[in-house]
């Protein structure tokens, strides 16, 4: 049943002399909520950039839904079905919420200069499709009533939700969320976790990159742990909580920030 | 071989002028991330100012040595004042705006100053008077070297060494470097960022004015559009050396001058400016951080 | 799912309602434009024609600078390419100028593609400097008269007028209507593009390039497309200019011409089509009115640019989408 949707084989990436990611293998099971965790500097962001095509690996392979996407540019990867959000919000600040979310539909449509100028019936239908898809995604995150508001005028929490809506509008099969809970209060975090579960229910696989252990342990079904550019553990939350190496390398170091109790 | 040496000397001369002007660009860019298009016009105005001093005062009577020093100092002082004024009027109010507004404002200042010069001094070429004491030349191994060339090279090198010393060895220099890395942090560390910016706008135009007077004495002819021509070359030099990098601007200017003169001597004088721009574009495509490296972490 | 429904329902799109609501005003404006040349006399008709050429140039640069946010300070190069294509092919090969109108657009657009392809990835300030460099390279090339084609500093003379059937476009009023029709066509096309998937993609790039790329937009191709369309339209404007003047020379296509075009876009408000028109009007018509103070004209321009940036950086008629990029927000 657990078919890998995303499979990473032996990827390696060095910056100058620093080996940021060293022979990492991991996979994300289809239809689940997976997490990639690790202390600061563990290489999470680099792995993330390699998957989304911002950087290409020095060695190794990235397979997505049976397709080799190693080293493809970001727009090709998005087209293949991987969508992402940004840790530091990157919305289009001077455009409306609706327009922000419409951006996601760009890869699913194809009107060119000619059909846009002559308003071919195909293009008109496409515009309608873009609008409908954007409406649906805004609805899902509960921001439809703010559709005409400029993105920069939204509250921080709403901006995070808007980013998720925008990513959903690309119709992904894998949604990667880069620390979606950072900067959110408890109420907002709870709402976010509900939303993530709901997205999973719709059949979209989720890969979470997260610092907040409450979020990770509370929601993930599959966890990969990185440390110093290496994978040190992979498995269900229970496996990870018992993994000696993980406890020593990662959790042990941050005792103050972390308590096992909060997960249960 | 003689042509080569001849063009090498010419290249070093014009190159040191580019270096002096490039310093103004690179310092402003390093601290403010702004291409200060108006800088070339200050260089041009410095040249005209020196011209007026020479023609309508008796400073020339002081003799070549003192006369030159007084004229250069007065032109430098005047342009430093103008530099501060430009900064206050056209850039200071835009400190918090995006990056585009100051660039447009700089272009506006540039147009304004250029046309002001045209209205004051006329649209035709003006000629620096012949200063007999400076009109000396020697022949060294078949290569002509004029006294002006020696002066330009000497003055430029001394000024650049002085600037390098200030930036690298003094507290003021450290403050400038800190401001270039991160203005906000510098401010928190108690550095008066506005004072640093003012200082940059004193030194840059002053060096530009020195270059302007020397260009006038060397080439004799000056024109109100020359600021623009030198400006593009100087900026190319700054990019060649890695923008924000002070020794880079010095080396970049010299190198550009030599390349330009060799191109003019061996290929074609009419196309020499095209070489300069092709070098610029190729450099930006192939090595955008410049030959000596852009000071990304440590601009200036 | 009918075609019209989509358009009406999109209330969250910034300027979807901007135009239809003002239909009446635009209708009246069109009426004035139609009557104008019959009342104004040939001199002012010519002024209006040149104004129209500047509107075309402003619109073409607006695609690049206003919609995508790429700092192109060498736009006069594409204008020159269009003008010289028409001039050379007409005087050397004898091709009728009316055919050369689209040809000039295609040639300029083609050069737009070839010249900007290697530099399209450069960041803001560097792109600005490189486009200045391209402008200068072209100008010097024209002056140096390669293969005796460009006529050096004197330029090309003896360009024939355009002929449409039996009508030779020669009198001021002919040119006026010709430019008016081309401008209206261009505005129509650009409005359609602005409100399409393409126009939105351009705006996404302007707002945040990294996010746009992550949303699946092929940033490089979209930027190149903007350059090709912008250069092509500038080429068409150049072709009209060549047949209007019948003689062209490099001095019409200097860096300062590029600065004037850039200023038109900034002055009017980036990404705003009405803004381009207002900007062109300020840059073209004001100097005509100030003819007695001709020599102070550029002085005034320079000062105006500084004053604009300090007091109204968003432009005279900003697009609703574009109010913050210049650093300050406006109260509507």
The secondary structure category of chain C is mainly alpha
Average pLDDT taken over every residue of chain C: 84
What's the CATH H-level homologous superfamily of the largest domain in chain A? P-loop containing nucleotide triphosphate hydrolases
Q: Indicate how many domains the architecture of chain A comprises.
A: 2
Low-confidence stretches of chain C: 1-9, 322-332
Tell me which protein chains meet in the greatest interface and how many residues each side has: A-C, 45 and 42 residues
What fraction, in percent, of the residue positions of chain A are helical?
25-40%
Order of helices and strands of chain A: EEEHEEHEHHHHEHEHEEHH
Helix content of chain C: 55-70%
**Spatial sequence of strands, sheet with the most strands of chain A:** 6-7-8-3-9-10
How many individual β-strands of chain C?
4
Note the total helix count of chain C. 13
SSE layout and pairings?
The complex is a heterotrimer of chains A (264), B (300) and C (332).
Chain A: E1 4-15, E2 18-29, E3 33-37, H1 44-52, E4 59-64, E5 67-68, H2 74-80, E6 82-84, H3 97-102, H4 113-118, H5 121-141, H6 156-168, E7 174-178, H7 186-201, E8 205-209, H8 213-219, E9 222-227, E10 230-235, H9 237-242, H10 244-251
Helix pairs in contact in A: 5-6
Chain B: H1 2-32, H2 39-56, H3 64-91, H4 100-121, E1 126-127, E2 137-140, E3 143-146, H5 147-169, H6 171-181, H7 183-188, H8 193-219, E4 221-222, H9 226-240, H10 246-266, H11 272-286
Chain C: H1 3-9, H2 18-21, H3 23-67, H4 76-93, H5 97-116, H6 124-143, E1 156-157, E2 162-164, E3 167-169, H7 172-194, H8 197-207, H9 209-214, H10 219-245, E4 247-248, H11 255-268, H12 273-289, H13 297-311
Antiparallel strand pairs in C: 1-4, 2-3
Helix pairs in contact in C: 3-7, 3-10, 3-11, 3-12, 4-5, 4-6, 4-10, 5-10, 8-10, 11-12
Task: Please give a structural write-up.
The complex is a heterotrimer of chains A (264), B (300) and C (332). Chain A is of the alpha/beta class and 264 residues long. Chain A has 2 domains: 1-81 and 172-264, Rossmann fold, CATH 3.40.50; 93-171, no CATH class. In chain A, 38% of the residues lie in helices and 23% in strands. Chain A has helices spanning 44-52, 74-80, 97-102, 113-118, 121-141, 156-168, 186-201, 213-219, 237-242, 244-251, and strands spanning 4-15, 18-29, 33-37, 59-64, 67-68, 82-84, 174-178, 205-209, 222-227, 230-235. In chain A, the strands form 2 sheets. Chain A has a 6-stranded mixed β-sheet with strand order 6-7-8-3-9-10, sandwiched between helices. A 4-stranded antiparallel β-sheet of chain A has the order 2-1-4-5, covered by helices on one side. Mean pLDDT of chain A is 86; it is low at 254-264. Chain B has 300 residues and is mainly alpha-helical. Chain B has a single domain, classed as ABC transporter involved in vitamin B12 uptake, BtuC (Orthogonal Bundle), CATH 1.10.3470. In chain B, 72% of the residues lie in helices and 4% in strands. In chain B, helix 2 crosses helix 9 (226-240) and helix 9 (226-240) packs parallel to helix 11 (272-286). The termini of chain B are far apart. Mean pLDDT of chain B is 87; it is low at 296-300. Chain C is mainly alpha-helical and 332 residues long. Chain C has a domain at 43-254. Helices cover 68% and strands 3% of the residues of chain C. Chain C is built from 13 helices and 4 strands. Chain C has helices at 3-9, 18-21, 23-67, 76-93, 97-116, 124-143, 172-194, 197-207, 209-214, 219-245, 255-268, 273-289, 297-311, and strands at 156-157, 162-164, 167-169, 247-248. In chain C, helix 3 (23-67) packs across helix 7 (172-194). Chain C is globular. Chains in contact: A-C, B-C. The interface between B and C is large, with 42 and 43 residues.
């Amino acid at each position: 049943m657990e078919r890998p949707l995303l499979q990473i084989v032996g990827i390696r990436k060095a910056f100058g002399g620093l080996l940021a990611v060293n022979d990492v293998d991991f996979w994300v099971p289809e239809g689940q909520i997976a997490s990639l965790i690790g202390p600061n500097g563990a290489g999470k962001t680099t792995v993330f950039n390699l998957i989304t095509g911002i950087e290409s690996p020095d060695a190794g392979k990235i397979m997505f839904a049976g397709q080799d996407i190693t080293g493809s540019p970001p727009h090709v990867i998005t087209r293949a079905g991987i969508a992402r959000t940004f840790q530091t919000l990157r919305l289009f600040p001077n455009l409306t919420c609706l327009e922000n979310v419409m951006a996601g539909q760009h890869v699913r449509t194809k009107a060119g200069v000619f059909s846009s100028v002559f308003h071919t019936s195909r293009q008109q239908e496409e515009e309608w499709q873009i609008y409908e898809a954007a409406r649906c995604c805004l609805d899902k995150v509960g921001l439809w009533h703010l559709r005409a508001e400029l993105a920069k005028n939204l509250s921080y929490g709403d901006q995070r939700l808007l980013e998720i809506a925008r990513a959903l509008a690309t119709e992904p099969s894998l949604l990667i969320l880069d620390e979606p809970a950072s900067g959110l209060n408890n109420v907002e975090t709870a709402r976010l976790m509900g939303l993530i579960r709901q997205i999973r229910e719709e059949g979209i696989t989720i890969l979470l990159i997260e610092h907040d252990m409450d979020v990770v342990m509370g929601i993930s079904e599959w966890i990969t742990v990185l440390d110093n550019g290496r994978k040190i553990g992979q498995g269900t939350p229970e496996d990870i909580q018992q993994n000696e190496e993980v406890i020593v390398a990662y959790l042990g170091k941050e005792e103050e920030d972390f308590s096992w109790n909060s997960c249960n | 071989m003689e042509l080569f040496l001849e063009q090498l000397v010419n290249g070093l001369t014009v190159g040191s002028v580019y270096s002096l002007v490039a310093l103004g660009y690179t310092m402003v860019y390093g601290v403010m991330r702004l291409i200060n298009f108006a800088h070339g016009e200050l260089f041009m105005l410095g040249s005209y100012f020196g011209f007026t001093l020479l023609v309508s005062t008796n400073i020339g009577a002081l003799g070549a040595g003192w006369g030159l020093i007084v004229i250069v100092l007065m032109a430098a002082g005047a342009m430093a004042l103008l530099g501060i004024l430009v900064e206050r009027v056209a850039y200071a109010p835009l400190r918090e705006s995006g990056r585009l507004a100051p660039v447009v404002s700089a272009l506006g200042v540039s147009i304004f100053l250029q046309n002001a010069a045209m209205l004051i001094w006329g649209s035709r070429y003006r000629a620096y008077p012949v200063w007999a004491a400076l009109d000396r030349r020697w022949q060294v191994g078949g290569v002509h070297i004029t006294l002006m060339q020696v002066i330009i090279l000497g003055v430029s090198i001394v000024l650049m060494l002085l600037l390098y010393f200030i930036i690298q060895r003094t507290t003021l220099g450290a403050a400038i470097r800190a401001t270039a890395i991160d203005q906000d942090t510098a401010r928190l560390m108690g550095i008066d960022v506005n004072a640093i910016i003012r200082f940059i706008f004193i030194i840059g135009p002053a060096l530009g004015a020195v270059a302007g007077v020397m260009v006038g004495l060397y080439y004799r002819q000056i024109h109100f559009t020359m600021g623009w021509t030198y400006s593009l070359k100087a900026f190319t030099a700054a990019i060649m050396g890695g923008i924000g990098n002070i020794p880079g601007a010095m080396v970049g200017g010299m190198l550009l001058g030599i390349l330009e003169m060799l191109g003019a001597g061996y290929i074609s004088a009419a196309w020499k400016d095209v070489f300069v721009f092709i070098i610029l574009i190729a450099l930006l495509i192939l090595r955008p951080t410049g030959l000596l490296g852009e000071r990304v972490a440590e601009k200036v | 799912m009918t075609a019209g429904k989509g358009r009406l329902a999109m209330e969250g799109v910034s300027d979807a309602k901007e135009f239809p609501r003002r239909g009446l005003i635009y209708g009246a404006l069109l009426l004035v434009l139609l009557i104008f040349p019959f009342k104004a006399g040939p001199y002012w008709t010519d002024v209006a024609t040149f104004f129209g050429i500047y509107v075309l140039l402003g619109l073409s640069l607006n695609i690049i600078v206003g919609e995508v946010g790429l700092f192109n300070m060498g736009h006069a190069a594409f204008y020159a390419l269009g003008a010289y294509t028409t001039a050379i092919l007409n005087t050397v090969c004898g091709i009728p100028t009316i055919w050369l109108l689209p040809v000039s657009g295609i040639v300029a657009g083609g050069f737009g593609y070839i010249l900007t392809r290697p530099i399209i990835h450069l960041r803001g300030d560097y792109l600005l400097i490189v486009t200045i460099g391209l402008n200068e390279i072209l100008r010097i090339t024209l002056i140096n008269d390669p293969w005796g084609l460009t006529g050096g500093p004197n330029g090309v003379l003896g360009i024939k007028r355009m002929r449409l059937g039996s009508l030779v476009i020669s009198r001021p009023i002919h040119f006026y209507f010709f430019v008016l029709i081309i401008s209206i066509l261009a505005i129509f096309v650009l409005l359609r593009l602005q409100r399409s998937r393409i126009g939105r993609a351009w705006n996404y790039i302007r707002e945040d390039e990294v996010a746009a790329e992550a949303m699946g937009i092929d940033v490089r191709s979209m930027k190149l497309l903007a350059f090709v369309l912008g250069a092509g339209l500038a080429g068409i404007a150049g072709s009209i200019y060549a047949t209007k003047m019948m003689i062209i020379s490099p001095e019409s296509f200097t860096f300062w011409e590029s600065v004037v075009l850039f200023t038109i876009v900034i002055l009017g408000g980036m990404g705003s089509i009405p803004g381009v028109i207002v900007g062109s009007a300020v840059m073209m018509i004001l100097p005509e009115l100030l003819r007695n103070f001709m020599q102070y004209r550029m002085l005034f321009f320079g000062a105006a640019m500084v004053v604009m940036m300090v007091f109204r950086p968003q432009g005279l008629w900003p697009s609703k989408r574009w109010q913050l990029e210049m650093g300050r927000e406006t109260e509507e």
